[in-house]
Specification:
The structure is a single chain. Helix content is 46%, strand content 15%. By secondary structure, the chain is α/β, with parallel strands linked by helices. The chain folds into 2 domains: 144 residues, Rossmann fold (3-Layer(aba) Sandwich); 199 residues, Rna Polymerase Sigma Factor, Chain: A (Orthogonal Bundle), CATH 1.10.1740.10. Helix 5 links the parallel strand 5 and strand 6. The protein starts with a strand and ends with a helix. The protein binds magnesium ion (MG).
Amino acid sequence: MKKVVILGSTGSIGKSALEVIRRFPDKFKVLGLAAKSSINILEEQIKEFNPQYVAVFDKKACDELRKRVKKLEILYGNEGVCKIAKLKEADIVLSAIVGAAGLVPTFEAVKEGKIIGLANKESLVMAGEIIKKEAQKTGAKIIPVDSEHSAIFQCINGINKQHIKKIWLTASGGPFFGKKSHEIEDVTPQEALNHPKWKMGKRITIDSATLMNKGFEVIEAHYLFDMPAENIGVLIHPQSIIHCIVEFIDGTYIAQMSNPDMKAPIAFALSFPERLPHIVPSINWSITNTLHFEIPDTEVFPCLKLAYEALSIGGSMPAVLNAADEVAVEAFLSGKLKFKEIYKIIKKVMDAHNAFSIRSIEEVLEADSWARNMAKKEIEK
Ligand code: MG
């Protein structure tokens, strides 16, 4: 029986993880749950899964939940979430908090040498170098939950790294695939949130529409698999059946495929090295009979280029990229920015940033908050 901690249990990944756990009560026990503020969902989860530890990030939400749930102590704030992230009894910590807020709790789990199912890609985008070093020190193991990285992990497990030539991350292309630059000038948040293949949270869905998400994934892959940026490629694959392709030095390839459903990588991470039955329905080959690939158009989707640029500059720049994107996406969702301006804001913030080398999480957070302020100022202009 694996004892599972879920950081971000009320988000899209957290809920899917609990769906998997619900089906296999003999394999998993929920040890701890942490959420930002969605206490109605959290209260239901507490009733159903009976965790020993619960934390709520938001003060008001925490106070309210404390009134409603008397049978256990509800931990509060970043400190509470971090306490749950490093529980000694946990067999696996699923890090599924959205955005930069996931960094510190994830790092706590790394410091504790935990096995981490990592859905919070921002941790690696912002602080990949530091997390890698710390994991080497403590023996923490990261099992990717991002679908493409889970796919790569599955393709290269047990394979000699010297034999890998290139990793290809696939991207559905999002709702605006095939559009011209001027056609996506004035798209609404509603149109951008209408992802053709994946059901995900709001921020990542917008990041998919701009291809910034794929850019983050390039950075994530760089740290997870020790691959230089030039050996990580991106392919648009609108069917979202193939999740990654690994190219070997002999000119052969291994790809991983399934119907697109986040439960597949979540269940894989939770059960690794085992596999669970019937997580995703089999592919129906009479419907899925064409797989299409295309090189992304970075003139239409320039955010992808920014991510490669941030990775090549290194140091604090990827954290700045992420922070500026978080602020710009939020502004777009609330109607303060046009779709194409997301890129412009991030570019301005990156251009204004003097990248420095990062030695601690505190320095990462410094870069993060500098970039947030800068992005907000630029949006207000
Ligand atoms: Mg992904």
